[in-house]
Amino acid sequence: MAGAQNLEPMSPYVRPKLTLVSNSEVTSGEQVRDPPIGARHHRAYVGAAEGYDISGALQFNIVTFLGLRQDHYLLDIGCGSLRGGRLAMSYLEPERYYGIEPEGWLIAEGIANEVGQDLIDLKRPAFSNDSEFTLTTFGRQFDFILAQSIFSHASSSQIERCLSQAKQVMEPNALFLATFVQGEQDYEGDGWVYPGCVSYSLERMTALAEDQGLTCQTIEWPHPAQQTWVVYSHSENACRIPEMGDAMKLLALENELKYAKARLAKIEGHPYVRLGMKVVGNPLYNRLRETTSRLRKAA
Ligand SMILES: C[S@@+](CC[C@H](N)C(=O)[O-])C[C@H]1O[C@@H](n2cnc3c(N)ncnc32)[C@H](O)[C@@H]1O
């Protein structure tokens, strides 16, 4: 099938192995293997198990880089076992995190193994098991929408449905972040492909968005499986996506400020400077200056 391919292995981020058997059962010399991608394991089902942590971190980092703040509402489409959701949920105020995931067991396993019931009780997220991309199901608008590694498995009619629904639930300044596998060929099938991936050209992704009144911009952001990140916004309200360079400049300025403060502290700590400051701060010094200036004027 054109545009369909096997899931690319993730880049070799080195992580402790996820055991399918307990460590006590592993005899010396026996190879402990991660469950394969797509296996019925809450980490492996959503991608390479060893990249679970970094993938979640990259999702959380991009939404906060693009402006997600604690009082915003976030919709996580295909939230899986809460790989990114567990970080977003901790960060957001209660009742701000919403997830859609047809595989209910993934959410349950994610809560049991990654999030914990205490955080759920504290943050009160909302979930739906809808499989038709019914984003209106929660009856509310969102500031941010995330679809990480969803369009990399979806047919163009599913993407179309998702974007048309997104258009309805996006606040005027909302951003919708998604990843897809960029390729020469467009997947023309009409079903969800999993755990394999499908590809689309950027032109096709842009056209699908424009048909729904959305603007589609790419953003340079790392992805463990080299998928392309895109940001959708309302066409009538298309915003400027900050460049990585903006964050770099900010970091450079912060560093410069830190360095300048450290230099100042060092200078202020020098015995002569301390003595000088003591003299300047002394009322006698001020009286002496005033007298000198009076004498100068009188002379
Ligand atoms: C590659 S995983 C990504 C999961 C999650 N976004 C993450 O990054 O960890 C794809 C997810 O999409 C879910 N999915 C499958 N069909 C879906 C649909 N129709 N609507 C939303 N999610 C779907 C799968 O069950 C799976 O959890």
Descriptive key words:
299 residues, alpha/beta, Rossmann fold, 2 domains, nine-stranded mixed beta sheet, 9 strands, elongated, binds S-adenosylmethionine
Descriptive notes:
Helix content is 39%, strand content 16%. The protein has 299 residues and is α/β, with parallel strands linked by helices. It folds into two domains: 4-250, Rossmann fold; 251-298, no CATH class. Strands 1, 2, 3, 4, 5, 6, 7, 8 and 9 form a nine-stranded mixed β-sheet that branches. It is elongated and about 100 Å long. Bound molecules: S-adenosylmethionine. The site of S-adenosylmethionine has 20 residues, from loops.
- Major sheet size, sense and barrel closure: 9 strands, mixed
Oligomeric assembly: single chain
Bound molecules: S-adenosylmethionine
How far apart are the first and last residues' alpha carbons, in Å? 100 Å
Q: Report the helical percentage.
A: 25-40%
Q: For this structure, what is the CATH homologous superfamily of the largest domain?
A: Vaccinia Virus protein VP39
Q: Specify the number of helices.
A: 9
Secondary-structure content class:
alpha/beta
CATH C-level label of the largest domain: Alpha Beta
Question: Short summary of the structure?
Answer:
The chain is of the alpha/beta class and 299 residues long.
Task: Spell out the blueprint of helices and strands.
Layout: E1 4-5, H1 52-65, E2 74-77, H2 85-91, E3 97-100, H3 104-115, H4 117-123, E4 126-128, E5 142-147, H5 156-169, E6 170-182, E7 197-200, H6 202-211, E8 214-219, E9 228-234, H7 244-269, H8 271-281, H9 283-298
Parallel strand pairs: 2-3, 2-5, 3-4, 5-6, 6-7
Antiparallel strand pairs: 1-7, 6-9, 8-9
The protein binds S-adenosylmethionine (SAM).
Residues 46-47, 55, 77-80, 83-84, 100-103, 106, 131, 133, 148-150, 192 line the site of S-adenosylmethionine.
